[in-house]
Input
Amino acid sequence: MWRRPFFWIVAAVIAVFVFAPLIGDNVSLREGLVLAAIYIILASNLNLMLGYAGYINFGSIVFFGLGGYICVWLINSYNWPLAPSLLAAGIGVSVLSFIFGLGILRLRGPFFALSTIGIVEGVQAFVQNFEPWGGSAGIYISPMVFQPLGGPGRALWVIYFLLVAVMGASLYLSYAIKTSKFGLGLLAIGQNEDAAAILGVPTPRYKALVYSVSAFLPAIAGGLYFFKSAFIQPSDAFDLSLSTEALVVAMLGGQGTVTGVAVGAYLYEELRGYLLTSASFSNFQLVIAGALLLVIVLFFPSGLMGFIYSRYPSTKKVLE
Amino acid sequence: MLGILASIIDGVLVGLVYGLAAMGLTLIWGVMDVINLTHGTMIVAGMFTLYLLTSALGVPPYLALPPVLVGGFIVGVALYWIAVHRMIGRPPLMSLLSTFAVNLVLIGIGTGVWGTALFNVAVSVPGISIGRYTFPGAHILAAVLAAVIAAALYLFLHGTRLGRALRAVANNREAAELVGIPSTRLLAIAFGCGVSLAGVSGLLIGTLFPFTVLSGDGYQLKGFVVTVLGGFGNPIGALLGGVALGVLEGAVTPFVPVSWTLVIEFGLFVLVLIAFPGGVFARRGTL
Output
């Protein structure tokens, strides 16, 4: 894998994320990159479903929110350190989604997409009524938990580097899956599920597996994000606009490509930052995201990378 | 025991309105294999038209029906040309995404203008009392109106030339085109009818319960449950499915907290899709 140029492109991107905010201790740049990293994590894991297997998951935010809840809850109620809580969040959400996935992935195409909307509603109703997680009031964690990481100031840097690590893992995961036999099976499902099944792709198992794999890293990212804000409540954890934006990002960059999703995340983050600073647009964030998505779906269904591939075919070999 | 019976009867009344909402969804699916994710928002649009007409212009609630019916049709046709027409014949995921995108824009504008405050339309219709239980007049009237509109749709689909042409397009678009039916125009009309039904059912729901800009999601989910119960693409099945869902809601409400109702309904949605992919009440393709 390291012989391929793409491996080094991703490594360079990670290096930029690590070193750019370190120069001059630039905290505001770091906070901007936190958001970009979260978009990349959510969108590239969503892309495993959307771009490879051709299944729309409207509820990818559930992974992020549930991961956040499990992590914050373990830290707050059982005084677990950060690392095992994150791992528990990732594994817990993956196992849960594998079990769910075996059920709902028997539904095909649009019916699966509809049931992911239902999952968001269901999980939200569960969390709002679940007393150990504070119901609709949520969980606060005391700033004392930042002590083992060297105080709140240093903890924010540690969290940031962990988040960048998760982002790098997401990109490499997308790449590794794309070049594997598993990925080939997923792409076959995306093109024609019946034909794939006839050719021996174990479609239900692959679909449940990719659903569960695409849950792991977003759950860890959710744990980091809500540990950082030291507070979690249902309306933040299951903020529908975030999973919508992940969809927009994946479509903007080009579904099914690794590079496109990362570039799309960066572009969208810049656009959003630009729009949020002007007062008249900040209330209409969803309108902009929706209009952007509509234009992409109607006129550029293969996204930015589709455009680049058709313009410069030689880039296909380098940029996955 | 009598209490449960009363809440079941009330469930039938409300269920007829749910059924009407799902008929719009299923009509569009049956004719062009498109799942309209703006459906919930169109239901909310019906509610807000009712609110604006009654509170600003003082129109009696039920007189808002004709403008919503016509307005919904026009909006639906426009929506077809904007978001759906280019998606016909492409993978269903694309039309799902395009209607989802339009929905985001509409929801964004709605929350920007009205926020997420609760709105309420007061309707005073005398109820009917049986023993200790009183059935609210608004529920009875809404159920009757829903049944009348559903019957009108049935007559339109089976009795008129245009309705028969619509069914022909739903059945086999190429064959319909061969015998001279302008199928694109009919797809636009079908989409208009579907959205119009959503608006009208939203108006009727608005006379029953308070609502916010975001209530559409819940009703849309109910619409999907009803649609799979009744069989995709089958309007009369949808009406029966609506009644079944209403009865279920009426039967479980005394025992289960309200916030769990949607979860139960969603569980039902998945179970029905897995156990009866063709719907419980009828086969597919009977539009």
Observations:
- The first strand of chain A starts at residue 139 and ends at 140.
- Residues 5-318 of chain A form a domain with the ABC transporter involved in vitamin B12 uptake, BtuC fold (CATH 1.10.3470).
- Residues 62 and 149 of chain A are 28 Å apart (CA to CA).
- Chain A has one domain: 5-318.
